[in-house]
Amino acid sequence: MRRAPPRPEFALVGHQESWSKLGDIVAALRGASLPPVPEEDLRAILPWIPPRTVVRSRVASTQPGRAVEGIYVETFITPDELSARSFHRAIEKVREAIACAAREGARIAALGGFTSIVLEGRPEVAEGPPGITLTTGNTLTAAFIVRGIETAAARLGIDLAAADLLVVGATGDIGSACARYLGRRVRRVLLAARGAERLSRDEKALREGGVAARVVRDVREGLAAADVVICAASLASPALDLGACRPGALVCDAGYPKNLRPGSASSNAPRVFWGGLGQAKGGWQADGTLLETLYSFRAARVAHGCLLEGIVLALARRFEPFSMGRGNITPERMDEIATLAASHGIMPAPLLGPDGVWPEAEAQEPAEVGQA
What we know:
- The chain is built from 11 helices and 20 strands.
- By secondary structure, the protein is an alpha/beta fold.
- Strands 5-4-1-3-2-15-20 form a 7-stranded mixed beta sheet.
- The longest helix is centred in the middle third of the chain and has 19 residues, at about 140-155.
- The radius of gyration is 20 Å and the shape is globular.
């Protein structure tokens, strides 16, 4: 008799940012013996596939004897469904994915990328089904972003105290958290986002807190002026021009999907890293190869901080909505979750960008995501 899988303590709920990535998942689920499904067919079929568990895994703490079982629930929200015209259908898929995690018995679910947006202003979704707690994971994501900025700036010789910081998506949960955390460590914060009224309120709040803040109405103006850029906007596809950035600037693309279109590879081009990523130092084993497909970074056991927050809370047995609601992330909460994560060996990932691990980064261990 086949043994039932262990009951998961955490669930990771996510979606893919490209059709090619969705094609990789479908290919892995179908098996290597079958030919790939053409993208035309994927576009016709995938919008009708309901959310389902596609990975079962086990994450170990660096604390001896502590590990947690978990699942990854793919929503099968397609890139086309990230646009405003399909928003309601995407929300329904998120609801179905949360229900799937609850049926599996998960005690906490972390919502990655677009899926976390459904919690904003929708208390009936935020509460979740009985027995499961939801967290957006945005606090750990923001903590990993600012630590990445500090590390990258030091390696590039950028003095943050003399730098202008541009935050694109400054009124979002993650962007606003980064602006508050770094605001008093940089010379000036430039704020860019949709929604002029909220942007003005956030600028006023930062100024009242002693931060030199200024709204920029034209993102290109901010990109040309900033020494350091954090891109954390909710965009359906890359829309920001890397070529508009100041030469030699430090740019963190923390968007999912990514915010930046590729730019020049010249010697004075901006240096880019993907922000908000963390690495599970204690080990992460899966029941197949699909975890490697989902997280195909050029470093072992790397995933987005929004999902890792759910794992951290499960390892700490703190089944609570640590991140919930827009604008509630404080620097103190960012430090708290980062310290808790580090206590279980979940650390900021090495600096990763379009060309892989930064050459200035420390050498990484060669191990890949493990197989159960």
